[in-house]
Design a protein that fits this description.
The protein has helices at residues 3-10, 16-32, 37-44, 48-57, 63-74, 80-91, 96-114, 117-128, 142-155, 167-174, 193-204, 242-259, 261-276, and strands spanning 133-136, 159-162, 182-186, 208-213, 226-229. The protein is elongated, with a radius of gyration of 23 Å. It is 57% helix and 8% strand. The protein folds into 2 domains: 3-107, Arc Repressor Mutant, subunit A, CATH 1.10.10.10; 111-259, Rossmann fold, CATH 3.40.50. With 291 residues, the protein is α/β, with parallel strands linked by helices. Helix 7 crosses helix 12. The protein starts with a helix and ends in a 15-residue tail after the last helix. The chain has a 5-stranded parallel β-sheet with strand order 2-1-3-4-5, sandwiched between helices. Helix 9 (142-155) links the parallel strand 1 and strand 2.
């Protein structure tokens, strides 16, 4: 039962102060989701302890658990304008640089705790053995697809990055996908309908489907063989892609280790080409400038 259903079911038994909290959450859960217990209490005119007891009354193990439930409700529903408003309320006059970086650190910590190590290992094996690797992401997640595609294209012969295409073009890019292939679908709130449709198409064709997303409640999960959780729940006008990028880094490193000697040979040949065509700046005698 979701939070609003719980509140509605138990409304008649709440105290006067608890009813004030309940009504505010019901009408403004997009704002309440990012308030501390103290701020929520002050907003509705009750004490912080009353807010904490309210959360316990609903069956949550403390206020942070109830707050997380509110955030789960809204993470894929906020418009850009609402995100700006939430950001202002959330950070106020704080040191924004420190606040944002510390929140990203927390997201990486939660990613370590919540992602499945077994799904990660199975994803790497599926990728290493795939005939063709499809990487799908659109909108802000397209940057992640581009980064992963760049490195995988150096490692593998058959890599297709699909991003920022029209719907018809998406299926034109995917129509050869088969049970020998893998698709890595990347999407975070607000979830892309295009990603959901593309992964559904790939699953019907028998391909291994890997989701890189933020939660097991993501619509991508039910379509996937393996799920890689990377937290990205900053409700601001921009999406936090720090933890997803760290997950992609881990995928690349694990793939290199899985393939062992084959990758070393590939990069030996690449280094020869890069050197022959003067791709990277090398130290030159006497210039005092590093690479």
């Amino acid at each position: 039962m979701n939070l609003l259903s719980l509140i509605n079911e138990r409304m008649s038994g709440f105290s006067k102060g608890q009813k004030l909290i309940a009504v505010f959450i019901t009408e403004h859960y997009d704002k309440a989701a990012f308030m501390t217990a103290s701020k929520l209490g002050a907003t509705v005119g009750v004490s912080e302890s009353t807010v904490v007891r309210f959360a316990t009354e609903l069956g949550y193990d403390g206020y942070p658990k109830m707050q997380k439930a509110m955030q789960e409700m809204i993470r894929d529903k906020l418009t850009s304008i609402q995100r700006i408003e939430v950001t202002k309320n959330r950070f106020g006059n704080e040191d924004i640089l420190s606040s944002v970086l510390n929140q990203d650190i927390e997201k990486i910590r939660r990613t370590i705790e919540e992602t499945s190590k077994e799904d990660f290992r199975n994803s790497v094996k599926a990728i290493a053995g795939a005939g063709t690797i499809y990487i799908f992401a659109v909108r802000s997640s397209a940057a992640l697809a581009s980064f992963l595609g760049y490195y995988y294209s150096l490692i593998f012969k058959n890599v297709k990055v699909i991003s920022n295409y029209g719907e018809t073009e998406i299926y034109e890019q995917l129509f050869r996908i088969s049970e020998d292939d893998v698709i890595i679908g990347i999407s975070f709130p607000r979830y892309s309908n295009a990603a959901i449709k593309a992964m559904s198409f790939a699953k019907r064709r028998g391909a291994k489907v890997i989701a890189l997303t933020d939660s097991m409640t993501s619509p991508l999960c039910s379509l996937s063989d393996y799920v890689l959780i990377a937290k990205s729940d900053m409700a601001s006008v921009v999406d936090s892609l720090v933890a997803p990028l760290s997950m992609i880094n881990a995928l690349i490193v694990a793939t290199v280790i899985e393939l062992d000697g084959a990758v070393e040979k590939t990069f030996t040949n690449l280094e020869m080409i890069w050197q022959e065509y003067d791709v990277y700046r090398n130290n030159r005698e006497g210039d005092g400038i590093g690479q």
